[in-house]
């Protein structure tokens, strides 16, 4: 029997794929896949955006969840201006440790270089960026500054609205009202072997398992294997089993995903609440470099 028929996903996919969207007048939006992702052209990210164009860009992020935009050689200031359209810029606790010797540290830019000497690459697991923060990142803007010579290095994204919608009604009823712990140490110490700076601890936060997006009003699944350790209201064995199922649900549901192939000077912009992503490390021993800015909204997010 089909896994998807068991979870009654066809009505959810039909509702998503046939939902009407208002036309765009200031940018061109071309879907990358039916359920998530779009390519956006018609914007000059090297200059401030007009208010009508910015309003459409914000709407496109929340409608399509991940946008691929031609960057045309953005400067660091251009990159940061793009992030600030969505809130104040986030400073990552591991940012200083990612600076290459001789480089300049900017707390608002998270950079990395993955190559033959790397023990890991950032984001090589399904996750939402820094979900351990009390006020998590809403939108991230990523550019890859060096692509692997052999190709590869794609980034996969999953639609967490549909990850929730394709669950059975009984499981949705079980998840209602549950909260989960998201722990930075789980991701960065156990995952990367990184320690916090002296006198500091990695953040730990409690968030609803199913949150409701303030811009769309839609519920989405907000747990991920990188940061989420346990569900507060359940015994650990039940929590582990449920979180394991939800992680596999996202991993195996290819109909909810898109895999974005990087191009030179491209910028990826995504909704970090209603989408998860996974950086594909298939290019070893070749190098991939990148820089990310991320925006935190000026209001309390993640209401149940």
From TrEMBL:
Alphabetized GO MF terms: metal ion binding; taurine dioxygenase activity
Q: Which residues form the TauD/TfdA-like domain?
A: 29-292
Q: Name one GO biological process term.
A: sulfur compound metabolic process
What are the alphabetically sorted keywords of the record?
Answer: Dioxygenase, Iron, Metal-binding, Oxidoreductase
Q: Which GO terms describe its cellular component?
A: cytoplasm
> In terms of domain of life, where is this protein from?
Bacteria
**Pfam families the UniProt entry points to:** TauD (PF02668)
Give the record's family classification: Belongs to the TfdA dioxygenase family.
Name of this protein: Taurine dioxygenase
Source organism of this protein record: Zavarzinia compransoris
**Biological classification of the source:** Bacteria, Pseudomonadati, Pseudomonadota, Alphaproteobacteria, Rhodospirillales
């Amino acid at each position: 029997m089909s896994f998807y028929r068991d979870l009654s996903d066809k009505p959810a996919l039909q509702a998503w794929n046939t939902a009407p969207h208002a036309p765009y007048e200031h940018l061109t939006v071309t879907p990358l896949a039916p359920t998530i992702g779009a390519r956006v052209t018609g914007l000059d990210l090297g200059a401030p955006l007009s208010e009508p164009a910015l309003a459409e860009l914000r709407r496109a992020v929340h409608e399509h969840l991940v946008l691929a935009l031609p960057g045309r050689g953005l400067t660091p200031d251009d990159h940061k201006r793009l992030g600030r359209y969505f809130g104040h810029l986030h400073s990552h606790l591991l940012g200083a440790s990612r600076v290459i010797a001789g480089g300049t540290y900017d707390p608002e830019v998270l950079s990395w270089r993955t190559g033959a000497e790397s023990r890991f690459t950032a984001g090589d697991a399904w996750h939402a960026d820094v979900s351990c923060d009390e006020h998590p990142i809403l939108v991230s803007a990523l550019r890859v500054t060096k692509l692997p010579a052999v190709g590869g290095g794609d980034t996969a994204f999953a639609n967490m609205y549909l990850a929730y919608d394709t669950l059975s009604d009984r499981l949705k009823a079980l998840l209602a009202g549950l909260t989960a712990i998201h722990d930075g140490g789980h991701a960065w110490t156990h995952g990367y072997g990184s320690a916090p700076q002296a006198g500091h601890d990695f953040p730990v936060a409690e968030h609803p398992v199913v949150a409701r997006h303030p811009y769309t009003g839609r519920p989405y699944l907000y747990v991920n294997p990188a940061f989420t350790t346990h569900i507060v209201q359940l015994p650990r064995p039940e929590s582990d089993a449920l979180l394991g199922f939800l992680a596999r649900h996202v991993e195996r549901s290819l109909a909810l995903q898109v895999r974005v192939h990087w191009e030179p000077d491209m910028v990826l912009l995504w909704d970090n609440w209603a989408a998860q992503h996974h950086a594909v490390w298939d290019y070893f021993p070749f190098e991939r470099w990148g820089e990310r800015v991320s925006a935190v909204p000026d209001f309390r997010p993640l209401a149940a």
